[in-house]
Amino acid sequence: MKIFKKTAKTRLLFFLLADIFFIIISIWLAFLLRFDGRIPNQYFAGTIQGMVILTLIFCVPIFYFFKLYSFSWSYVSIQELISLLKASILSFLFSGVSILILRDSTWFSGFPRSILFISYFLIFLFCGGIRFSKRIYLEVFGGGIKAEKERTLIVGAGDAGEQILRSILVSKNSFYLPVGFVDDNPTKQGERIHGLKVLGEINDIPQIVERYQIEEMIIALPSAGSKAIKRAVEMGRKAGLRKIKVVPSITEIINGEVSLGNLREVQVEDLLGREPVSLDTKSIENFIQNKTVLITGAAGSIGSELCRQIAKFNPSLLLMLDQDETGIFNISRELEDKFPRLKTSSIIADIQDEEKISQIFSKFHPKIIFHAAAYKHVPLMEVHPDEAVKNNIFGTKIVAEMAIKYRAEKFVFISTDKAVNPTSVMGATKRVGEMICQVLNKKNVTKFVSVRFGNVLDSRGSVIPIFREQIKKGGPVEVTHPEMKRYFMITPEACLLVMQAGAMGQGGEVFVLDMGEPIKILDLAKEMIRLSGFEPDKDIPIVFTQPRPGEKFFEEILTAEEGTIATKHQQIFMAKLSEIDEEKLTQGLKRLREAVIKKPNREEIINILKQIVPSYKPN
Predict the structure, then answer these.
(1) Where are the alpha helices (DSSP H) in 339-449?
(2) Which of 87, 108, 145, 467 meets the CB 3.0–4.6 Å disulfide criterion with 66?
(3) Which pLDDT does position 51 carry in this prediction?
């Protein structure tokens, strides 16, 4: 029958009727307890009825106000118990004051005060009991036959581990049978969480797996560095575990709550060995909240992740600009689903179209601009340097000049480690972009900030999806050179640090993100093969090709002359930059424009770039 269908309304009705029933029972029992089972006749003349009416008048609305009718019955927590306690105390106070006011009335004349205390104690007991009954049932009897479930070890006995265990215990369809925890915190050894013991430390995993016949492992360390995750994965592999799941980093979990739905397979970014990003969220909030924010290149890897992260800080309007209509459609739909209250506007435009960009600025007057639009594929830009110049230099110049014209507060230019001592056209054009920002910052209208960082894992066209596709085909996995190294960062971390640098910047700076230690591409390839369940050079061969045009063996974050200045944020540094000769830059850009407008000549374009960026050494 439809009346018994599980909906928010039926749940509200069920608990409302249950509360009314238990309130009546509590008051009746309070009188029985007070008078040792024999209630004097005088209290049947309206006192009991009056007490019931008064209690219902206060309890039901206050319970509703404390959201005690809109919670998940299976996932009820200590938070609901605290809310019930607060609601009961408030109702008790209102009832007590009302009885005091009405003490001379027929109903409440000579009313025993102890009944008020007893009745509200029983209300708290019964109303709390009904709310926790389902969770207690599920934890005692579980959600299925234990033999059908896989014996599971949880790594991390902190908040995330507790939330995962709670989700397993109350889930009817969970395939996990939790056996215990491991945690490196010595104070947690031997502790019990929801009845399960902390069995040892991460290094003890092989012995624990053997002793307790563990079949699966969940790593619940979202706030830990990936060194701990990597160690747990290595110990799990050593123990012969094939099924290892991980809770994503806290930057990837939008609402901050961990559940079984968050679990995913271990990915290569979990094993990078980087320390977690720490943020001054208040300064980012002040930077973005209630402002119109424009993101160019919003359909790309960095741009789309900037959209996701900025959405969390409540801008008044988020403008997403890109010429990739499918990408813009996808990120728009994602944000509508995750942030239904966020005001967004999707814009299809080319940053080289000066008139269109002017119309956009005139209409929306963005206060903050994150300029992520760029051509970034190194070998392709070597073949088409004219397109790299038009987009990465003159497209940047158009957007930057519009920021000044329409008096934007801040312009954040997304740069790259390839702009340092560039050997590629792409790197040289990004360095020119930095130089344009440095010069325009002197106009003292808009604050221009550049942020450099290395490769972003799993971005479009990066090495990760290429390796993944090669592994799927059975190999070989192609690495350009055994000594090739790169700095890597996961996209959410990179974007959060870009936002932090943008919030810190006072104008004219080139910020450098701490990319951690450089990683050998060969090691990355081997790790990806292992994560796919194969052995490198045994199941999947690795072959070496030649470095591509414009590639370096090792990317730098700074030139030798630049050096860094520490900032108040431990993972963001500031490059010491020499002054830009504005006249020389202007003349260079003029020659560059002429070179790309006429029939493009690759050698001519590269020569002009070398004059503008003396450190540019094409290979």
Answers:
(1) 354-364, 378-383, 385-388, 396-405, 425-441
(2) 87
(3) 87
